[in-house]
Design brief:
The protein is an alpha/beta fold and 404 residues long. The chain has 2 domains: 243 residues, 3-Layer(aba) Sandwich (Alkaline Phosphatase, subunit A); 135 residues, no CATH class. The chain is 34% helix and 18% strand. The strands form 2 sheets. It has an 8-stranded mixed sheet, sandwiched between helices. Strands 3, 4, 5, 6 and 7 form a 5-stranded antiparallel sheet that branches. A hairpin with a 2-residue loop joins strand 5 and strand 6. The protein is globular and about 60 Å long. The protein starts with a strand and ends with a helix.
Length: 404
């Protein structure tokens, strides 16, 4: 038996008036999922434990079977591992976004215009981070360049416990009440302020503005954490596992769990990603010897953060019309029996442009066994109607792997 998770990051949503009071899942043309639903177990799962923030770090860790209360040590260390940064036990890491802030003179009065600096390219971002390093790096603080707007700051002999707000939580809002607080809060804030002066007239930003794009005119520090330790996936489940994602965070979880990280050309982390390529790569890995593959698709989440309803629906339809059929056809052509779990990690409603902790709808289908529990479609409401509820998200994977 082969096992697949198709994780549509942030795919769940609230009802949207412009869609006739439907969610994006309800409005999308999900022919495949609606065909599979009557043959599948469909229900709700609480992926974010009470008391924890609804980040993709906590939620993806949960869906992969790791209890966040036991294993979670922060978001940025997971990304740091994926970036190849060697961490000591006394290092503290922070996620460093390149963002677009409004142009008020006083930093404290600015507004978070865009947490991703207009989805800045990795090449442009690398040039900006290299420039910032020359002024911000010292014996204690080191910046590392990542992908697009996502970068990392490592603090030697650091401390945790700061109040640091994810920038995507405050889109279109004043940053005044969301500046760093805590032991090193003033230091972090000074770095952020200094970055605005350094980036203001950088050639990369001048070119972006001339092209009608948003400038990366500040860094934003958040998501602190310390070096984590996850159990090997194979040891926990007696399955050889792989992971596919365009996002360092999810790759880092896979690497820490000793899973094979499968790279896919054209995987971007947004709605222009290589949907078919991800499905093809997963099928090849499963047919080639892996027992389990986790396909993480960031696109619905990014669209939710931007309030982009149309592209969120498009991303869901690509998962339905391209990813899942490609997987099923390839595995069936190879004569494989398989079970597939389709789920978001958390909702990212377009109305609020950030993550929420509400339970998510999941679907488990197998070509070897009828798992029906009464659903007729795969939507938030249908999942609720079945009455099937997984209270501890890290146990959801047990329901998938119980299919034999």
């Amino acid at each position: 038996m082969k096992y697949v998770v198709v994780l549509g990051d942030g795919m769940a949503d609230w009802k949207i008036e412009s869609l006739g009071n439907k969610t994006c899942l309800e409005a999308a043309n999900t022919v495949t999922l609606n065909k599979l639903a009557p043959l599948s177990e469909v229900g709700l799962c609480k992926t974010v434990p009470d008391g924890m923030k609804p980040g993709s770090d906590v939620a993806n860790m949960s869906v992969l079977g790791f209890d966040p209360h036991r294993f979670y040590t922060g978001r940025s260390p997971l990304e740091a591992v994926s970036m190849g940064i060697k961490l000591t036990d006394t290092d503290v890491t922070l996620r460093c976004n390149l963002v677009t802030l409004s142009d008020e003179k006083n930093y404290e009065d600015k507004t978070m215009v865009d947490y991703s600096a207009g989805e800045i390219s990795t090449e442009e971002a690398a040039e900006l981070i290299a420039y910032l390093k020359s002024s911000l790096d010292n014996e204690r603080f080191t910046l590392y360049s990542g992908i697009s707007y996502r970068h990392c700051l490592v603090v030697k002999n650091g401390v945790t416990g700061h109040d640091l707000t994810p920038p995507h939580d405050i889109s279109d809002r004043k940053i005044t009440e969301h500046l760093p607080k805590g032991e090193l809060g003033a230091v972090y804030l000074e770095m952020m302020k200094k970055s605005t002066k350094l980036l203001a007239d950088h050639p990369v930003n001048k070119k972006r503005v001339a092209e009608g794009k948003r400038p990366a005119n500040s860094i934003w520090l958040w998501g602190e954490g310390t070096k984590p330790a996850l159990s090997p996936f194979e040891k926990a489940h007696s399955l050889k596992g792989g992971i596919i994602s365009a996002v360092d965070l999810v790759k880092g979880i896979g690497m820490l769990a000793d899973m094979r990280v499968i790279e896919v050309e054209g995987a971007t982390g947004n709605y222009d990603t290589n949907f078919k390529g991800k499905a093809e790569a997963a099928a090849e890995a499963l047919i080639g010897g892996l027992d389990f593959v986790y396909i993480h698709i960031e696109a619905p989440d990014e669209c939710g953060h931007h309030g982009d309803v149309a592209h969120k629906i498009y991303s869901i339809e690509q998962i339905d019309n391209v990813v899942i059929p490609t997987l099923c056809e390839r595995l069936e052509s190879a004569g494989e029996e398989y079970a597939i779990l389709v789920t978001p990690d958390h909702p990212t409603p377009c109305a609020c442009k950030t993550h929420v902790s509400e339970p998510v709808p999941y679907l488990i289908y197998s070509n070897a066994k009828n798992l029906s529990n009464g659903a007729v479609r795969y939507t938030e409401d249908e999942a609720k109607k079945t009455g099937t509820y997984v209270a501890d998200g890290y146990k959801l994977i047990e329901r998938l792997l119980a299919v034999k």
